[in-house]
Amino acid sequence: MTVTHTLSRVLGAAALAASLATAGAAEASERRPAEIRTEPRPTYRVVEPAEEQGPLGLVGRSPRSIKSEVVTRRGKLVLRGDVESYSGRNVVIQRSHCDSCRWRRYDRVKTNYRGWFRSVIKAPRNGSTLWRAKVRAYGGYARSYSATWETYYRAS
Q1: What is the pLDDT of residues 40-62, one digit of tens each?
Q2: Per the structure, how many domains does the chain have?
Q3: How far is CA 46 from the centre of its chain?
Q4: Beta bridge partners of 107
Q5: 3-class secondary structure, 6
Q6: Is residue 52 domain-shared with residue 29, that is, in the same domain?
Q7: Domain range spanning residue 88?
Q8: Domain shared by 28 and 59, yes or no
Q9: 106: which residues sit within 8 A by CB, 6+ positions away?
Q10: What pTM was computed for the model?
Q11: Residues 60 and 96 in one domain
């Protein structure tokens, strides 16, 4: 490659960059706030609080207290919670598409030494999904469920 050829390539690239920079600035100044559209974002709400009383048929067994919440972390929805005296054991994250549909296993996570758990959950583009955490009966406690959460998309 000759010096003239290299110089013409550099000057051509600089001219192209300058034209793109000025075109971008002109386009940004022409944009009106009404034209800016915001993406729909996933959101959530609690549908049903957690049960504090056990079922009537089980005498002497009370459910564990599962405190749960849905938070947004790095643009993702996370179901996290705390299970009473349940460290290092499995928590099953369940999902359902409607109130009368079956609950299906979505994820299985372990609690840490404090009994905390977390799992990334999703919000469907159309409709909504219900989520809850379940722990099995163990150590004198009955099978327990967290509050039920609903995730969906809405325009912001």
Answers
A1: 777 787 888 877 655 555 556 78
A2: 2
A3: 14
A4: 93
A5: helix
A6: no
A7: 41-154
A8: no
A9: 93, 94, 95, 119, 121, 131
A10: 0.69
A11: yes
